[in-house]
Structure formats: C-alpha cells, structure tokens
Amino acid sequence: MILPILKLDDPLLINRSEEVKVIDEDIKKLVKNMFDTLYMADGIGLAAPQIGVLKRIFVIDIERKDNKFIFINPIIKDLSKKTIKTNEGCLSIPGISKEIIRSESLIVEYFDIDGKQKRLEANNILAVCIQHENDHLDGALFIDRLSPEERLKAVQEYKKSLRIGDNR
User: Fold this and answer.
1) What's the pTM value of the predicted model, to 2 decimals?
2) Does 167 have pLDDT greater than 70?
3) Most buried among 65, 136, 153, 158, by the most CB within 10 A?
4) Is 19 among the residues known to form the active site?
C-alpha cells in the first residue's frame, strides 16, 4: 500500500522516533508499505517518520535491483573523518536538492526484518543515504545541515515551488 509522505511543514518530522520493541506482522507490513511508497515516489530511501510513523525504521534501495536494506533501531557506530559532498534531496521536500557534506564511510548496527542483529560497513552513496535517513529518526532534515542562510533559502525555494504548482 502506498502511503502519503509528510512534507516539510509537518510537525511530526521534527520529533525523535521511538525504538521498535517487537518486530511483528504490523512492522513487517509497515516495511512492505514503505518500500511500495519509496518506489512510487522514485526515491532511494524512506524513513518511517516521513509517513507519519515515529518508529526507528528506514528502508533503502539505491539501485532498485533487489538490493533492499531494512534498518530497524539503527545505531551508527563509526563515522569516518573523511567526508564526501553530495547533492541530496528528500521525498519530504520535493524538488529541492542541495550539496551536503557527510562522512564518506560508516559502520551501522541494526536489526533486520527477522530480528537478527546486523553490522554493516557502508561507504559513498550508501553511507550518505544511511546518514540522511537516520537523521529523520532523530527529527532532522538534510536542510538542517545547511548554514542558517542556506537553509532559509532552501525553505523559501520550496515554498515558492508550492505556489507555482498551485497556479497551474
């Protein structure tokens, strides 16, 4: 089932998500719906708060070739000092992308959909995506990593795009 994605002004997006206590059928259904929503929105990552569920879950599928990642209760253990600058966007702020600096590699511990504890070393785009989605779990958006001036410009650009869309 495709779920609505919350947009920038929704107050749920700035809340910290709660840990998942039990991976039951409801969580498995939620994850399936998150992938359905991700694919329909043509994204590469989606966090549960973006669909109004304040649980520490996100999904990633960068290449959309059955290389799905499901992260439940992720904890980033090690961020490299070496950084990478990428042009990031967000399904909650459609049409806006900005260059963001993040760690180039990381180690993340998490639970998979079967409740097994996992550890993953990730780099480049996967590491960036994990950091981006993990920020959502803490109530942060990628534009929060911009300077105050750049963030204000991004918000104004987004709001302007909404007004233009209303005039069509």
Assistant:
1) 0.94
2) no
3) 136
4) no
